[in-house]
Write a structure and sequence with these properties.
By secondary structure, the chain is mostly helical. It contains 10 helices and no strands. The protein is globular and about 40 Å long.
């Protein structure tokens, strides 16, 4: 039981750290003028959603590995557009990874599973669709191809 509590604390710590960092960035000139700022503001909620879905016994086990991959991608300092180097704008590839994973889950299961755990304010299904439609403009087709390859699409 104590191990579960430690894992929840790590999730909370990462969530809070990302949330504070993004909210501070959005207040800067760069953040205010960034066309993807609304999507980047959803990063903590997308991360939270991946965690909740991974832990939900109603989610088919075949999706747990993809959800885990999405979580690992968020947390890893090494990814296609590293946040550690470019700042919060570096989350655009993480957003795309999450959107593709969630989109496949929506299409192959009941979308209510996604809605049940969404902590964000906007319509999660619409947000995921908007991210997928904007992904190529956000990060380019080469990065999208790498993400799709990573996810086995």
């Amino acid at each position: 039981m104590e191990e579960k509590h430690k894992n929840q604390e790590k999730h909370y710590d990462f969530y809070q750290w990302v949330r504070k960092r993004i909210h501070a960035w959005v207040q800067t000139e760069e953040g205010k003028n960034n066309q993807w700022a609304d999507y980047i503001l959803a990063v903590p909620d997308l991360f939270h959603l991946l965690v909740k879905l991974t832990l939900d016994p109603e989610v088919p086990s075949t999706y747990k590995a993809r959800l885990g991959l999405g979580l690992a991608y968020f947390i890893s300092p090494i990814d296609l557009i590293p946040e550690g180097i470019v700042g919060p704008i570096g989350y655009v590839d993480d957003i795309a990874v999450a959107a593709y994973i969630l989109h496949s889950l929506i299409n192959e299961t009941d979308p209510k599973l996604i809605k049940k755990h969404w902590a964000g304010e906007q319509d999660v299904l619409k947000l995921i669709q908007q991210i997928i439609e904007s992904a190529e403009d956000m990060i380019g087709s080469r990065v999208i191809d790498k993400i799709k390859s990573m996810l086995g699409k």
